[in-house]
Amino acid sequence: MTATTTQAPKSALARIIAAGTHQRVLAFASLVILLIGFSIASPNFMQTSNMIAILQATSVNGVLAIAVTLVIITGGIDLSVGTMMTFCAVITGVVLTYAGLPMIFGVIAAVLTGALCGAASGTFVAKMVIPPFIATLGMMLILKGLSLVISGTRPIYFNDTPGFSEISRGSLIGEVIPSLPIPNGVLILFIVAAVTAYILNRTVLGRYCFALGSNEESVRLSGVNTDRWKIVIYALAGAIVGIAGLLIASRLNSAQPALGLGYELEAIAAVVIGGTSLSGGRGSILGSLIGALIMAVLTNGLRVLSVAQEWQTVVTGGIIILAVYADMIRRKKSN
Amino acid sequence: MTNLVEMKGIEKRFPGVHALKAVQFDLRPGEVHALMGENGAGKSTLMKIMSGIYPRDGGDMFVDGQPVTPDGPRAAQDLGIGIIHQELSLMSDLTAAQNVLIGREPRRSFGRLDEAALNARTAEIFASLNLKMDPRTKVGTQTIARQQLIEIAKALSYAPRVLIMDEPTAALNDTEINELFKVIEKLKADGVGIVYISHRMDEIKRIADRVTILRDGAYIDTVNAADTPLSTIIQLMVGREVTQITVDIPDTSQSPIALEVRNLSRGKDVRDVSFSVRKGEILGFAGLMGAGRTEVARIIFGADHRDTGEILVAGQPVNIRTPNTAVQAGIGYLSEDRKHFGLAVDMTVRANITMADLRRFTSRTGVLNETAMEIVALAYIDRLGIRTPSDLQEVRLLSGGNQQKVVIAKWLLRDCDVLIFDEPTRGIDVGAKSEIYALLEDLAAQGRAIIVISSELPEVLRLSHRIAVMCEGRLTGILPGGATTTQEQIMELATQRDTASMGAEELL
Fold this sequence. Notes:
heterodimer; A: mainly alpha; ABC transporter involved in vitamin B12 uptake, BtuC; two-stranded antiparallel sheet; 13 helices; 2 strands; globular; disordered N terminus; B: alpha/beta; Rossmann fold; 6-stranded mixed sheet; 32% helix
């Protein structure tokens, strides 16, 4: 036992590092280094248009990563976010294109569908005590199949809903500041990140995310209805996935029912690079956002340098292993 | 005076165990009611039923004379029943305040947390406990003793009318215990009823008003603490006159040293530990929770790295970096958590016994020789008296004592000269315990060096030829075994904190 444990609050920097944010600092530093490296390697990289392209490419994966972060902090995992995103997009297509309802209903349908799917996963995990890996693996397949069944395996286009593609591709910021045409998709990503970060750090729901991941039995014995909170957390993650569904449908101006598989792994990769512990109890939205950005910068930068796409995948895989290894070393030292 | 809580004819069964047989218990306002019994007597089970963690299979429970059936910890809390668990159940990634008020966070609108109120309220509770701790401290950074105090603060934060304390002092030193007892006196004066579970007899005399004794899941008696001698209570607990068992300590002073450890250190867990154990000797390790005994064992076994220190086997320095190198050096470690680290419980007795040395049963083509494995497994089942219908029985179906024997068989097969037993009789019933003791003595008599880590002082005194005592990572002393050493002497060393590292704020 050392005397430091009862000392007055340490300096802000010391607290940030002590709070396990080291990995996030590391991730942020890697992001900066990547940006500088690619800028030096290619003059085309640090162009406004290219930066915006990177942000746009981050938006869908970023929103998915935020959703998965919530679940991973509880000590769970969600493998269904990719196909759930597609399912939400397909439902939006049904509401807007098949039923011809106004756009706002499509937005509500996407978020609601995601929340319901998430609540279903949460129920499997909490009430039926199915391990999250299995429960969401099942959900992943169910939703993939349902998307194909409902759409008749054909894409649903949103040509009848003018303005739908503006959700992602339009630029409210660009209208105000013409020199900065940041697409709405990116704006939505940052709003989702800010709101979720607030929920995670300032609300009861967020507190139980960390508490469940840290010691679930203890939370239960403290009289907290852990089952209900788990379902709520999975549902919130689902609702955020619904937003990702809107973003991708808007960007493609269509719901592509065959899309979706593989997105969940990219999202989990972003979360892990961002320093969220897969064993639960620790993590942050900012970290996942940085993780998603690192992946987009890598893909974009290597493309600008004309590296074959196949190699980009190899590099991403290597980065994931390096990121987790760095985290392991840090944790070993702190123990 | 009506009873605060009354329990009658409580029944509880677990698969294969009749844990509680028509047990009764009552608690009056403003009293400390000690619940006594040997391990496995049913104390914790009864208290888990009272606090809504387990449902009861039969019997009645009344609070203020009203029949109740708390169906969860929350329902029990609403009835005013709080519990401090024996095992620490805190969330190490959260701060002290976040732990204390988990489930009852001060909220603002839309489920937003009021962090300032959370910390302020926790600070108040800490102050009432005379505990000097920043509510924003991460629990994981605290010592076991201070975590225990956070746990107590958490229970008090419910303002309970009934407070169940399950071995609250197991990790505390004398000063902390005195402070806890002051809090208990205050709670008593406020009319709170306290159920107190402890193995430390002196505590019972100090604070208990009444004592209820359980044995093997059955209610034995309730007596007044003041006019009942401790010997009577012990007699009721064990159901027989306790005769002092004299340990027959062989003279091993001429035997060669089997294992020597010099200046072993690892962070704050293990500080400059040196000792040696001779062939044929049983060295006991005593200490409170978190004293560093298991950590020393894990370092010797190569499961954790050491910062500094030397390990010598049979006089030769060995470079132990992994459990594999430890086993090659002839050191075996039997973990306190058999189910997790010692056994593959879903596999058969034969598979478990032969697991540690499969190469011996493997042909050149890599095929396992089941016949040879069977012969060896049956030989050990016979030699150690493992009660199992066959060597193909799954280990999980055996009793705790027999599971432990399977682990021992596994290490004997490896022919280890040094065997480290970590809590060898945890979760094992009384009868099987003496068998394990006899087995350990037998192994020592065959010339093996035995290290026994145990939290039960009677066990340490019963087995050890010498007793090493640890406190906060340091070896505070080595006492001779046998009747000359008392529990008090061991406790004194076990709570001998390093005064240099103990600042004013360390004291409660």
